[in-house]
Amino acid sequence: MIRKSGVCLVLLILAAFARGDVDESSGTMAMTFLKIGIGAEAISMGESVTALTGDLYAAYWNPAGLSYVQQNQIGFMHGEWFEGIKHEFAGFAHPIGQVGGFAVTVNYLSYGQIDRRDTQGNL
């Protein structure tokens, strides 16, 4: 019994010092397009909008926020990035009485044309 208590105590101490943080550089090398936000309000607030609710863009940031949608909403967004990258968004949100709301959204990213090269580097 004492041995089990000792093992549990050691495991508890080790668990207390375990690191559970996320590396700040995650997502900086591949698939950074997944970090492209939508909505002027959200982007202007540095994308710290998880608690904001009641509009169409909650479908992207925090779907639970759709429960506060009060009226029909339609939203569109167009963004142009470097090298011909284009980001498009369209969405519609509809309240469902006291139950909540639902949204239909389309999020599209176009990266233009990529030149194909052979093993010698020719186009």
Key features?
alpha+beta, flat, 123 residues, three-stranded antiparallel β-sheet, 3 strands, 20% helix
SSE layout and pairing:
Blueprint: H1 2-16, H2 40-44, H3 58-61, E1 73-80, E2 86-96, E3 100-110
Antiparallel strand pairs: 1-2, 2-3
Describe the structure.
It is a single chain. The protein is built from three helices and three strands, in the order H-H-H-E-E-E. The protein has 123 residues and is an alpha+beta fold. It has one domain (31-123). The chain has a three-stranded antiparallel β-sheet with strand order 1-2-3, with no helix packed on it. A hairpin with a 3-residue loop joins strand 2 and strand 3 (100-110). The longest helix has 15 residues, at 2-16. The mean pLDDT is 79.
Q: Any low-confidence stretches, pLDDT <50, length ≥5?
A: none
- Estimated helix fraction: 10-25%
Oligomer: single chain
Number of helices: 3
Major beta sheet, strand line-up:
1-2-3
SS class: alpha+beta
Number of strands: 3
Order of helices and strands: HHHEEE
Strand proportion: 15-25%
Broad shape: flat
Q: Span from first to last CA?
A: 73 Å
